[in-house]
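Slide 14.
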Amino acid sequence: MPGNAAGDGRRRPPRAVRQNRQVPVHLITDPDDDRIADYRALTDVELRTRWEPPHGLFIAEGELVLRRALRAGYPPRSYLVDAKRADQVADLDTGAAPVYAATPEVLRQATGFHVHRGVLASFRRRPLPAAADVLASARRVVILEEVNNHTNLGAIFRAVAGLGVDAVLLSPTCADPLYRRSVRVSMGEVFAVPYAKLDPWPDALAEVRAAGFTVLAMTPAPDAVPIQHLDAAQRARAALLLGAEGAGLTRAAMDASDVRVVIPMRRGVDSLNVAAATAVAAWELGRDDPL
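Slide 15: predicted structure.
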C-alpha cells in the first residue's frame, strides 16, 4: 500500500509529511504566523533592507541556491517549502532549524509573490572580512561603486565566479549581495566569492594600490586605453573598477584610479550593461589563465 494513502483509498492529510530522519515538517495555515516572520513581504525592498541585515539574516530561494548556502557554511535559521515539495529538503541535515510547509496560496500571501521554486530558507549572515584580508589572498578583483541594482549585482557575482576573479570589493552605497534577488540571479555564487566593503570611499582605493593592484577604471571616455592593449604589468594584479548603470564612475573614483580602460564598441554603442562589461573585462584579463 502506498505510504500516502489510507486503507480506504483516501489521501492522508499533509501534517503527516516528515523528513527521512523523522524531523517534522510543521504545517503553516496562517500567512501571518510569527514563526515565518523571516519570509514576510519578500518583494518589499525597503522593508527587507530594514529587516534582514539588522536581524543578521538573508533569504535563499530555490533548492540549488539553499544547498550552495549550506555548503558554504551559512547556518540555517529555518526552511519554508510548498507542502507538496517537502521531500526536496528531506535529505538535508537541518539541525535545529525548523522546516515549515504551506500551500502555494499561504506562501503567496506571506511572501508577496508566487513561490514557483517551492523552497525558501532563512540563513544567518556571517561577519564580513576586512578588505585587507580579501586583498591579501587575491590576484584579481572587481571593485563596484554605487551598484545598487540587485539583478546587476547578482549577475556580476556569477560572472566573477566563472571568469577567474578572486574577490569583489563594494563601496558603502552598493546594494546588498545577500538580498534574495541578488542571491538568486547569481545562482548562489555570492556564497563562493569573497567580498568586503571598501570604506571610506573613494579614499580606500589607496589601500588597493598599496596591496600591489593596478586600479583599472572602466569608462567610455575617449582617452581610455582599450582593454586588450593593457601591458603585462597592468594585467598582473588587476582591480577592475566599475560604476552604477547609466551614471558610471564618479569623478572622485576615476581620479583615484591608475588607468582608464574601455571595451571597444561598434555601431555607435558607447557602453555595455555593468554586469556584461564586468564579464567581458574579466574574460579579457583572464583569457590566458590555465583552466
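Speaker note: The first strand starts at residue 25 and ends at 27.
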